[in-house]
Amino acid sequence: MRTLRIPRGADDRATRSATARLRRRRGNIATVAAITVVPLIAAVGFGVDYTRISLVRSELQRGVDAAALAGARVINADGTNTDEISGDALMYFWANYRKSVADATIVGDNPSVALLQPNKDTVKVDAYATIPLAFGRFLGKSTASTHATASASRAVGGMEVVLVLDNTGSMSRGTRMSDLKEGAKDLIEILYGSTSTDTKSLSHCPNGNNGSCTTEYTLTVGLVPFITTVNISPGRANGGNGKSNIMDAAAVARQDWGRSNGWKGCVFARPYPFEESRADATPTASPFSPYIWKATNGRGANSWSNSTVESWPTDAAEAGQSAINRQTVGAGSGRENGPNMGCGQPLMPLQPSQAAAVAQIDNLEVGASNGTAVPVGLAWGWRLLSPDWRPWWENSSTKLFLKKKPVTVTTPAGVPRDYKAKNYEKVIVLFSDGQNELGASRSNDDCCVSGYGDPVTVYNTLGADPVPELNRRTSEICTAIKAKGIKIYVVLLYPNPPQSLVNLYNENGCASGKNYYFLASSESQLQTIFRTVGSQLKNLRLVQ
To answer: Domain range spanning residue 68?
Structure first.
């Protein structure tokens, strides 16, 4: 057999060919790797720079959001306080924006703050920043820009606020009353800002420009001082405007007022449930009876039928509306006498004047020591806000006895507004420094006529221990008020309160939520708490 021989040169050529092919393959891989690594590095670099830009944009947005809200909070009625608006906006921007993020620089040193025309009720804040790029400079771009904007407006509607303030005898301790008054006045001043009355310009006048335009008030404030009864003002039964007469004048005339010169304005609580779930029912549905203090057994210090002492001065007051003598009425049972004993100063219906609201709060005095009845105070707070009571309040005047100088306030037309009216809020701020209690007892029936009647009446209607029933009724009326869309803030002054009391007033009870309940362990905290409530209410009036 013949053997096939492969030439030696052919084998070398094959080897060299395979080696060449391998080298070419390696060269291709290197080329591909060289081509793809550049975009990979660029992508990583772009991702790092994009993250830096996003962080700055997020910081800008947080800053302009806070700035717009802060600026809008201080817009006055005609939008003329532009320096104040800009100053507050910039202060809040820099308080919320972190300068150190990504070494960014704000363009123009500060964001721009503008009050938009023509209504001058909206603040717009724009902020621009430049960010140095970590990798962009390799592509010829050393910086990038970003922008954030926010707008905030005063609410186009408004707010109705009623302060329901406990001024019972326990408020004489320490500086409780003075701290309460300072806090409540701060709340009012925060709400109004620099305006004396808060109004909204109407888009047109119903009868043209002939002076017949109606002012629409966007903020009205009421005040209800309470003990175990509430003074609705003696003018509410003096034969004036029939719709404003909450009390039937004939019911007042049937009582013997002795030497007291008549009824001073307090009323008894109505039968259940007209001080609880149906507290907003009008006098037409359930009439009121005039409050009168009369000792059950006709003897003792509070038996006034033979008394010659009843000091109710008439300084600067109209006939039949004697000024409240703060030295003898509502100043503790030991300093009072007569059928109006335990009757404090009148409530103030919703009205638009900041000065009147502040003066009425400043006029508060420590009241009688015959107990605390929170449901009674809440009931009248609700009635001031209830549209069902509008015929009894709107366009009617109430005389406020301020430091012996009567001041008359008028509730505007259409107030109180409908429940859940668009862009309007109804708010009650409740303050109390203790638990529900009544001084009445069967063993001491000379003591303590309350808004629920004499001791025997209290025993028959609320039980031998009225506290649990009063607490139950407090819970019931709070539930009914909130069901109407009214927000309730609660400020409780009580060192180490029992859990049952906390639960009655916190977000599980009367308060409209966790941020609506405040517990003060000492009176020194009241001013700060009321300022906080005022700021929260102010924010409720802003839309973003």
So the answer is: 38-154
